[in-house]
Design brief:
By secondary structure, the chain is mainly alpha-helical. The protein is built from nine helices and two strands. A two-stranded antiparallel ribbon has the order 1-2. The N and C termini lie close together (about 5 Å).
């Protein structure tokens, strides 16, 4: 027989508090500093005075980014993220892990707040556009929410470290892509990551997921 031991809630709550604090710091900085913020300085340095958004093109003629950006753009495509969501949810349901599936679906639901937050902060996009504000990045939120949820679910297994390494690479790739194609400021990405991580950690504490099983 095996006995299920639940993951302690303390680390989840601590992580959520740190992530929420990070989001608050970035949000306040964006509101106070505005166009003089550090992320604007970084972005202008990347684009070296460009006045028009270069969709799909790498800033500053970077050979490395020119090589990587097509793949990164496909990685951050809405369809690719939707496929990741669907495959994970279906896999959990087929494996009869309905509680885990509910946790995953609740985790990615944080992306529904993206439009409202963009409207509330009304942060202008890097280049003129008819789209809504840029803060926070919905792509960054979606990728972090999905990856963080998967890492939490795989934490009791041998796949925990591969999921951390692979997930970090995926999240970083999406973050680079949405900045490099001129669609977001760096602070938009940091805010999206922080908010999604905080949400997933809160859900981890709420759902009381298993840490591991031990013989009895």
């Amino acid at each position: 027989m095996t006995q299920t031991q639940l993951a302690p809630r303390g680390p989840f709550l601590a992580c959520a508090a740190i992530a929420l604090a990070a989001f608050a710091i970035v949000a306040v900085d964006v509101q106070i500093a505005g166009r003089a913020g550090w992320d604007r300085t970084v972005f202008r340095g990347l684009y070296a005075g460009a006045t028009k958004g270069p969709p799909g093109a790498a800033p500053n003629d970077s050979p490395l980014l020119k090589t990587l950006l097509p793949a990164l753009n496909r990685l951050s495509d809405v369809r690719a993220l939707a496929l990741l969501f669907a495959a994970t949810a279906v896999g959990l349901c087929v494996g009869r892990r309905r509680r885990h599936a509910a946790f995953f679906l609740a985790a990615i639901a944080v992306t529904l707040s993206s439009a409202a937050l963009k409207h509330a902060f009304a942060s202008p996009l890097p280049f003129p556009s008819s789209e809504a504000g840029s803060f926070p990045s919905g792509h960054a939120m979606a990728s972090m929410a999905a990856v963080a949820a998967i890492v939490v679910l795989l934490a009791p297994t041998r796949l925990r470290w591969p999921s951390v390494v692979g997930g970090a690479a995926f999240v970083a790739g999406v973050g680079v892509a949405v900045v490099a194609d001129g669609g977001h400021w760096p602070s938009d990405v940091l805010a999206g990551w922080s908010l999604a991580l905080a949400w997933v950690c809160l859900l981890g504490a709420l759902f009381g997921l298993p840490a591991h099983r031990r013989p009895t």
